[in-house]
Structures are given as C-alpha cells and as structure tokens.
User: Fold this.
Amino acid sequence: MEGGNHSAVSEFVLLGLTHSWEIQLVLLVFSSVLYVASMTGNILIMFSVITDPHLHTPMYFLLANLSFVDLGVCSTGCPKMIYDLFRNPKVISFGGCIAQIFCIHFFGITEMILLIIMAIDRYVAICKPLNYLTIMTSRKCILFIAAAWAFGTSFSLLLLALIVNLPFCGPNIVDSFYCDLPRLLRLACTDTSRLQFIVYANNGVICVVSFFALIIGYIVILFTVWKHSSGGSHKALSTLSAHITVVFLYFVPIMFLYTWPNPNSHMDKFVTLSTAVLTPFLNAVVYTFRNKEMKAAIKRSFRQLVIFRKIS
Assistant:
C-alpha cells in the first residue's frame, strides 16, 4: 500500500472482557480490591526494605526491585480496565495503545530476568554461603538490575520498531480489555502473518526457556544441598518455596498465552487479567507471609508509621 507508513487510525475501540452486567460488577469489585491490595503490599515491601537495616541484603534488594516492577505490571492495564468496565465505547488513543504495549513487554521481560537473578542469588546463598557477600556485592546487584532494565527496554523498543510504522487505515476494534499486540497486528492494512509468528515465537521461546532454566536451577540447588547434608534439603526447600511459587505464578499463565495451540479469545483475556492483577498481588502475599524477616520488618514499619503519625 502506498503511503503505508502513516496510520490513519487515531484511536482503537476495546471490546473489554464481557458484555454481561453481572460479570462486569463482579470484575469491578474483584479487580479494584486486588489492585489496591497489590499496590499496598508491594509498596509496603519496598518501604520495609528501604527503611529497615535488617533487610539491607542482596536478596531483599532484588525483592524490592521485583515489587517495583509488579507495581508497573498491575498499573499498566488494570486502572484503565476498571475505568472502562461500564464505559461505552471503550477507547484508547493510538499513542496510548503503543505506550501500553511497550510497558507490558518492558515490565514482563524485566520481571522475567529479575526472577532469574533472584535464582542466582539463592544458589550462591545456599550453595556458597561463606562466599555469599563476596560474590553478591552491592555493585554486582546494581549491575544485575541495570542489565535487567536495559534488556527489558531494548526488547520492548525492538517490538515497537516492528509495529510503529505499520499502516492502520481501517478496522480499529481490539477484542480485549487492553492493547494486545497479536490482535493489534491483525488490524494492520498489510499482511502481518510473518510478524505475528515472530512475536509469538520470540515471546514463547523466551518464556519457556527461562521457565525451564529456573526449574533446572532450583533442582540443581536442592541436589547440591542434598549431596552435602541429609537434612539440608528440607531447609533449602523451605527457603526456596516462596521463589518457586512466584516462578510458577508468573510463568504458567504467560506460557499458556504463547504456547497454547488453539487459543480461545475469552480464555486468553481472563488469563491475561490474572497476570495483570492477581499475580502481582500473590507475589506480595507469598514474599510477605512466607518470610519471617519480611513479616517482622513490616511490623516494624507499621510501628514507625504509627509513631510518626502521633508525633505529627
């Protein structure tokens, strides 16, 4: 198409999750409560790690960064989805749609790399405890975090470079509650089948490889501990249980979206909703209630807030 570099579409219409008024009401309550709880939980984790000297260790530094990323994950699509539930038409500008796609992939890839870094941290802490602080120095932790953010940014910008100049000149209805990249590609006024395959293949391969690398890593940790101590495997499993739980909560829904051979529109949307709203909340819950140090730190943070309020 001549002049196909320039989009004639200024906004997209989102069909949302459902047209049922009753389900929309349930979703409004469910999503609002989870969003507020997720924001509160992750902010509490970050605040506790920053203010509590007991948590100034590499593991909690990485956990605070994970909580920050989770804030981005749940804020990218959830507030607009809640706002749009009883709004017709549900529209998003072309620029807003591109920005949402960037943020979804940026926070998603960054969180994936953070989980891998946290697995490396646990390997060093459990398998090389005497050298832990020598290996996981503050400088290395900052470099790890910078690498995660840089890779997330580069990957997301590469995706935008592939789609930003596509011609959108006709259909503008997206069958989702957010700007879903594969559905958006199908609206372009040109053949994007090859590009859709590249997006699915890249995202699918990255998710599957990262997931199995993490699982193999955790198995190696447990096997190493078991070889050196008959009772150590139970302690290691107790330490790793929160990390393993978060890995499954994060990767299983994403792998379903990118590897399921016969995707169903409604199933895809509700799985995506769980990754956008439920997973960040569960991450905060898992790391808070399955970690004694974190629970103690949050209690101390509450006491500090109460004292500060009384003084002010």
Observations:
- The longest strand covers residues 11-14.
- The mean pLDDT is 83.
